[in-house]
Structure formats: C-alpha cells, structure tokens
Design a protein that fits this description.
about 190 residues, alpha/beta, Collagenase (Catalytic Domain), 5-stranded mixed sheet, 3-stranded mixed sheet, 6 helices, 8 strands, Peptidase zinc-dependent, metallopeptidase activity
C-alpha cells in the first residue's frame, strides 16, 4: 500500500527551530511520507489592503497549485488571515483540495508560563492535526478535549488534547477504512 504524502509549506517568513521538531512529530504520528517544501513567497493577490490581511482561500488555492501531486498540503504563514465568514482566522481548511493554511503568527498570541515556546508549539501541532482531520473528512467534534473540537479562543486550544477522541477515530475508520497511515497512540 502506498504511503500518503503530506507536504508542509512555509509561506513567507514562517520558519524557525520548531519546524524540524514538527516534522519529526508528524512522522511519529502518521505512517506517511512527510515532506518539507522550500519557503514560498506570499501570494500578493491574496492580500486585502482594506483588511490588512491575506484571504486564506486564495492562499489555499496557491498552495494546491505549487504542491503538485501530494495527498495533503499544509501551509504555515506568519501573516494574518481572514475567510469568507470571519475577519480573522488561525486555520482554514479545504476538504476537496485537501489543503490548509495556518497562521503561526496568531498562535504566538497570549503565550504564558515558564516555557512559552512549548505552548506555541503545542498549539501549532494541534492545529495541524485538526486541519489534517478535516482534510480526511472529519467534522468538528463536540468533545472539548478532542483535537477536532472547534476552538473559539487560544485558551480552548490550550485546554484540548493533541489526539483524536475515540468517536473521531471511529468516524475516520468509517470514512477512509483502516487507518494504515495514522499511528495508534497507546
């Protein structure tokens, strides 16, 4: 069986030492081919000067265009994003294109504790797992501890776990069959 390809694409200046750790943790969580693309420039047509933000859907289209033949593509950017329904979003996912974009800059808001970089990293990892879950067809979850729970604030993101609840795992199995590319935690 072919392993799915997951491409992580830095957009703009979204790079840092956390990127290497992220690639390793994704490789541990998924039996998939995890690839890191070279950073790409911001797609300037996606910028809305009135909002001073980038339109997430245009970045997603751009990511799918530059990604080529991969199963999933996740863009990480340091700019502010907006969507059709919301003036500010942290993550936007497109199920049919199997693409997502995450504003890592927004995940740095309200960092606290002795290890603020760890708080940032955990937020990023949860957002990537949630985006991949949506790309595999999972809807939002009502369990506030599940990674698929739709956080309305960074505080809610901090409180939820970085794993799928049993109900979401079952939904994944029913949608895509056995999960040969998702390592079972335990």
């Amino acid at each position: 069986m072919r392993r799915p390809r997951i491409l992580i694409v830095p957009v703009g200046k979204a790079v840092g030492p956390w990127l290497e750790r992220l690639m390793g943790q994704l490789a541990e969580a998924f039996i998939a081919q995890i690839e890191l693309a070279k950073p790409i420039p911001y797609p300037l047509p996606a910028f809305n000067p009135a909002r001073k933000r980038f339109f997430a859907h245009l970045i997603i289209d751009y990511l799918r265009e530059v990604a080529g033949n991969v199963d999933f593509v996740v863009g990480l950017t340091d700019v502010e994003l907006y969507s059709v329904h919301c003036n500010s979003v942290i993550c936007e996912t497109h199920f049919q294109a199997r693409s997502a974009v995450i504003s890592v800059g927004r995940l740095r808001d309200f960092l606290f504790g002795e290890k603020p970089e760890e708080v940032f990293y955990q937020r990023l990892y949860k957002e990537i797992l949630r985006a991949l879950g949506h790309m595999m067809g999972l809807p939002p979850c009502s369990n506030p501890h599940c990674v698929m729970y739709p956080s309305l604030s960074l505080y809610e993101t901090d409180l939820k776990s970085s794993s799928f609840c049993p109900e979401c795992l079952l939904k994944l199995r029913l949608r895509v069959g056995p999960l040969p590319f998702l390592r079972e935690s335990g």
